[in-house]
């Protein structure tokens, strides 16, 4: 992997200065790597970036936020993506595609993403902050699924379980890629994990299909080895809706 700063390539002679926000992120991570996160203050960051404290807080509410500079943008993009889907879309496929927006954010700068992953593992406060960010993504997915499954029995339960499964699968694959130093095809890591979610929940989460004659048709997908009583119970619950 190339040795670039978190905010982008290092500026050399004749290279335009990066935007202030990127400069603050680059300065912060340079200090985090040299001194450690706990030993670095906001004053240290703004001094290295050559700006004042007011400029820092214009972009980042806290020191923790400079470690995760793009999550607010990504969360907004995810929310808009979920809202813009056509009503006939498979809701499970839609939330899986929404999770890929998070992957794209990480894959835009593998060096930065790997550095952040390593830093977060070492700092308990950052791990807690990251969990709060992950929870917000999960809530966005669950809220969308609830609107799509509202007419089904236990629709809220299904929505919450599916959203949690999407986040768990995405994060498992993402961390595998980060542990590999951001090498390899990030999409392949995540596609495999999310395809598992779609196979497990996709058909079962969708509404019952209706034939031209008005008869209900229930399609259920189950993993091999699932006890038959579970399959029968699921069919009975869907048929009763």
Gist?
Mean pLDDT is 83; it is low at 1-15 and 206-215. It is elongated, with a radius of gyration of 22 Å. The termini are far apart.
What would the keywords be for this entry?
241 residues; mainly alpha; Tetracycline Repressor, domain 2; two-stranded antiparallel sheet; 11 helices; 2 strands; disordered N terminus
Q: In which range does the helix fraction lie?
A: 55-70%
What profile does the largest beta sheet have? Answer: 2 strands, antiparallel
Oligomeric state as shown: single chain
Uncertain residue ranges:
1-15, 206-215
CATH fold name of the largest domain: Tetracycline Repressor, domain 2
Principal-axis shape: elongated
Figure out the total of helices. Answer: 11
Mean pLDDT: 83
Rg calc: 22 Å
CATH superfamily descriptor of the largest domain = Tetracycline Repressor, domain 2
Number of strands: 2
Distance between the termini: 53 Å
Q: Output the helix-strand order.
A: HHHHHHHHHHEEH
Order of strands, main sheet, comes to 1-2
Strand content: under 5%
Structural class, by secondary structure, is: mainly alpha
Protein model, in words:
By secondary structure, this protein is mainly alpha-helical. The chain has three domains: 1-68, Tetracycline Repressor, domain 2 (Orthogonal Bundle); 70-206, Orthogonal Bundle (Tetracycline Repressor, domain 2), CATH 1.10.357; 208-241. 67% of the residues lie in helices and 2% in strands. It contains eleven helices and two strands. It has helices at residues 20-35, 42-49, 53-59, 63-67, 71-83, 91-107, 110-122, 124-148, 155-179, 186-205, 228-239, and strands at residues 209-210, 216-217. Strands 1-2 form a two-stranded antiparallel sheet. Helix 5 (71-83) runs antiparallel to helix 6 (91-107) and helix 7 packs across helix 8. It is elongated and about 60 Å long.
């Amino acid at each position: 992997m190339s040795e670039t700063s978190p905010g982008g390539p290092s500026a050399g002679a004749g290279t335009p200065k990066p935007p202030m926000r990127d400069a603050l992120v680059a300065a912060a991570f340079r200090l985090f790597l040299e001194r450690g996160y706990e030993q670095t203050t906001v004053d240290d960051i703004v001094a290295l970036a050559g700006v004042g404290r007011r400029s820092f807080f214009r972009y980042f509410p806290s020191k923790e936020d400079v470690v995760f500079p793009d999550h607010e943008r990504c969360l907004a993009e995810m929310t808009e993506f979920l809202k813009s889907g056509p009503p006939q879309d498979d809701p499970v496929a839609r939330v899986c595609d929404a999770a890929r927006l998070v992957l794209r954010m990480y894959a835009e700068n593998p060096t930065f993403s790997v550095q952040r992953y390593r830093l977060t593992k070492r700092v308990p406060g950052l791990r807690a902050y990251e969990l709060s960010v992950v929870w917000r993504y999960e809530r966005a997915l669950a809220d969308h699924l609830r609107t799509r499954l509202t007419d089904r029995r236990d629709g809220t339960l299904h929505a919450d379980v599916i959203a949690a499964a999407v986040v768990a699968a995405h994060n498992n694959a993402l961390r595998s890629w980060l542990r590999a130093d951001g090498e390899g095809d990030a999409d392949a890591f995540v596609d495999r994990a999310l395809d598992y979610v779609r196979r497990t929940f996709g058909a079962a989460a969708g509404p019952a299909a209706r034939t031209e004659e008005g008869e209900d048709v229930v399609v259920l997908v189950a993993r091999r080895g699932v006890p038959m009583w579970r399959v029968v119970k699921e069919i009975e619950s869907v048929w009763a809706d």
